[in-house]
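Changelog note: in this version the structure field was regenerated for every chain. One regenerated record is shown below for reference.
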Amino acid sequence: MAVSSDVEPLFVAFKKFSLYGDTKASGRELTGKAWAKLCKDCRVIDGKSVTGTDVDIVFSKVKQRSARVITYKEFQQALEELAPKRFKGQTKEAALQSIHKLVEGQEPTNVGVTKVAKTATVDRLTDTSRYTGSHKERFDDSGRGKGREGREDLVEHTGYVNAYKDAGTYDSKVKDADK
């Protein structure tokens, strides 16, 4: 098993990966997806001796039969299963130490996150002052969108026909006629 000095940084990595991408996660359990990400980000998966399939098989082996997650204790068992496979030629203890060194202190990476493109083409296409026709009505003079008001014809329940110039003058006309 792991030496007590290795447990703390290993648990920190476990917790970070268990919380990554899941707002409802408690940090005490690791899903299969998070386990695969941990193995990939920490370079446990090398593509030769350990593949994504190996990682999935080990996950299935260490988890409870009906569970969809693994606990920290099961996580340590999974690392023990992968260590000899990843570090061939080393003793079981040395391989376990090596795999712990890969995982300790690591956290999820955001590789492949889409960045905002800032090019002349994008600027030209998003310049609201150049919009024409019905699209022009969706923005005010400053170029800010009007929201729902700019997308839909909102019905005014005043009883008057749309764009009637004397709207709201009925009561004053009736009072003038009574005099």
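Spot check on this record: Confidence is low (pLDDT under 50) at residues 1-6. The chain has two domains: 9-103, 116-152.
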